[in-house]
Design goal:
Elements (H helix, E strand, L loop, with lengths): L2 H9 L1 H14 L1 H4 L5 E2 H8 L3 H12 L5 E4 L2 E3 L2 H4 L10 H7 L2 H4 L5 H7 L4 H5 L3 H7 L1 H25 L7 E5 L5 H9 L4 E6 L1 H13 L6 E5 L10 E4 L1
Parallel strand pairs: 4-5, 4-7, 5-6
Antiparallel strand pairs: 1-3, 2-3
Helix pairs in contact: 2-5, 2-7, 4-5, 7-12, 11-12, 12-13
Length: 237
């Protein structure tokens, strides 16, 4: 492939990202779990325009996401399987996050950020990103699901791969749903911990910590790490 062709693919990368987002939002990969389906059937199930969906799927098939095995019928590919919602390595939530206005609009102002050296999120939306998420539960849910699609896979490995034996009280800063500190506490029975994040975030983590029987060893503390953090040996996420 010539350099111009490679660069052209990079330039239109945002088109591909948005196409993946739409397919993820519509749940196309889940609908194809049992085998190939015609785009008309997929359009009816998802409530979208059939011809537009056909063009979208052909666009994605051109980069290896889905495959048209006979006229109008699409099936999963290894890349498309990663958009299934029930897989342990699913990237569906991450793809949906990439298609949110609060995710992609700041990239449209990247030149301004480079010129000024300052973030542009507040300029666009009037508040900083975490304040925005605090006021929009739906956006916060998407954000947390997307982050968990990566962190959940790493938590167990960190918990057993690092020697925490000298740590008596571990503070996880910006710990989100609490999966990491929960994994560490379960692997280190003499340790106590603190999950520190924004108040609404730690409350969302409470059901998991409680279900694992860790509330007696894990404090849930709400706050802003830009202002202060609890005392203890700190693990920053």
């Amino acid at each position: 492939m010539r350099p111009t062709q490679t660069l052209q693919k990079m330039i239109v990368g945002s088109w591909i990202s948005q196409s993946i987002y739409v397919a993820a939002q519509l749940g196309i990969a889940d609908l194809l779990q049992q085998g190939a389906k015609h785009y008309d059937e997929l359009a009816t199930t998802t409530g979208v325009d059939a011809r537009s969906l056909y063009r979208l799927l052909r666009d994605l098939a051109s980069v290896g996401i889905f495959a048209e095995n006979r006229s109008g019928y699409f099936k999963l590919t290894p890349l498309a399987e990663c958009l299934q919602s029930d897989r342990s390595d699913s990237l569906r939530a991450y793809a949906i996050k990439a298609g949110q206005a609060w995710e992609w609009q700041p990239w449209g102002h990247l030149l301004e950020s480079v010129k000024t050296g300052k973030p542009v999120f507040k300029t666009i939306f009037g508040v900083e990103i975490f304040d925005y998420l605090a006021d929009d539960p739906a956006a916060a849910k998407i954000y947390n699901q997307a982050i968990s699609s990566f962190s959940d896979k790493q938590d167990a490995a960190i918990a057993v791969g690092y020697d925490f034996s000298s740590v008596r009280n571990l503070v996880e800063v910006a710990g989100g749903r609490g999966t990491l500190i929960a994994s560490i506490l379960r692997a280190n029975l003499s340790m106590e911990g603190t999950l520190f994040d924004l108040p609404y975030v730690v409350e969302e983590a409470r059901p998991l910590i409680e279900a694992l029987g860790l509330l007696n060893r894990c404090q849930l503390v709400g706050g802003n790490f830009f202002e202060s953090v609890p005392q203890g040996e700190t693990l920053t996420c």
